[in-house]
Amino acid sequence: MDSIDALKLLPDNSVNLTLTSPPYALHFKKAYGNASKENYADWFIPFAKEIFRVLTDNGSFVLNIGGSYNPKVPTRSLYHYKLLIRLVDEVGFHLAQECYWYNPAKMPLPAEWVTVRKIRIKDSVEHVWWLSKTPWPKASNQKVLKDSLSPDMHRLNARGLKETTRPGGYKINESWAQIKKKGAIPSNFVQAEFFEEAYISPENVLIMGNNAANDQYTTKCKEQGVTIHPARFPRQLPEFFIKMLTDENDLVLDPFSGSNTTGAVAESLSRRWIAFDEVEEYVAGSRFRFGIE
């Protein structure tokens, strides 16, 4: 069953969070299928309308999408930005916040521009757009506070804080300090500090590869000769948004689930989940994420 048909089976206002990474509009075809840049928004909008319908009024839609070059020239496509505008203007979503995922495992492509002619730099950042059905989605950054504080914050907590105004005009007071004592509020790089497995760069950019070769899923797929999904995102990415945007027993949906990282993370966090994918072999392989042989 196609994901659009499966979405139509879900009741209105029933999903608290839709979190997904659909096939990108790359300039070369992938085995799991991907629409062209010219037709991408037209292809995705019917899915978006169903996602909007099934979301609760305080629900969120988190969309991971990568950019792409235009064919035969070293310029970037605007296909994903055009999609974002239509998601807001046509479907009715609100852009709650734009976030970013830095993936150091991405290949330096297109090789023609990056490694052969050497006129472009490696494209390693993908967009993670947090959209909502209304301007007031359920969310709490207190659920994803960074455990580690900087040395300056430790010194500040030790000596106490006097109310002051920074050169930029921002007022710092005791209430701000109390927040810092609990943990640091994440930024829209999805917080390297939030994840034990992530590497923290000097700029506090989240650095997460998607090339795990020895986790339970990939190991079992290799053992049983099951095709490994080629475009998995790391479990830390859905973990961050599921924690921040949902509560226990809420329903999480992934209509382009691939190997079902989203469902496995949702279950580990005591959320209910629904996942679709039209490639039967990817669905079969996803059982390894749940310890099912």
Care to give the gist of this entry?
By secondary structure, this protein is of the alpha/beta class.
Give an overview of the whole structure:
- With 293 residues, the protein is α/β, with parallel strands linked by helices.
- The chain folds into 2 domains: 246 residues, Vaccinia Virus protein VP39 (Rossmann fold), CATH 3.40.50; 35 residues, no CATH class.
- Helix content is 31%, strand content 17%.
- The protein contains 10 helices and 10 strands.
- The strands form 3 sheets. Strands 3-4-2-1-9-10 form a 6-stranded mixed beta sheet.
- Strand 5 and strand 6 form a beta hairpin.
- Helix 2 runs parallel beside helix 3 and helix 8 crosses helix 9.
- It is globular and about 65 Å long.
- The two termini are 24 Å apart.
SSE order and pairing:
Blueprint: H1 3-7, E1 15-20, H2 40-54, E2 55-65, H3 79-91, E3 94-102, H4 111-116, E4 125-132, H5 151-159, E5 164-165, E6 171-172, H6 174-182, E7 199-200, E8 206-207, H7 216-224, H8 236-245, E9 251-254, H9 261-268, E10 272-275, H10 280-285
Parallel strand pairs: 1-2, 1-9, 9-10
Antiparallel strand pairs: 2-4, 3-4, 5-6, 7-8
Helix pairs in contact: 2-3, 8-9
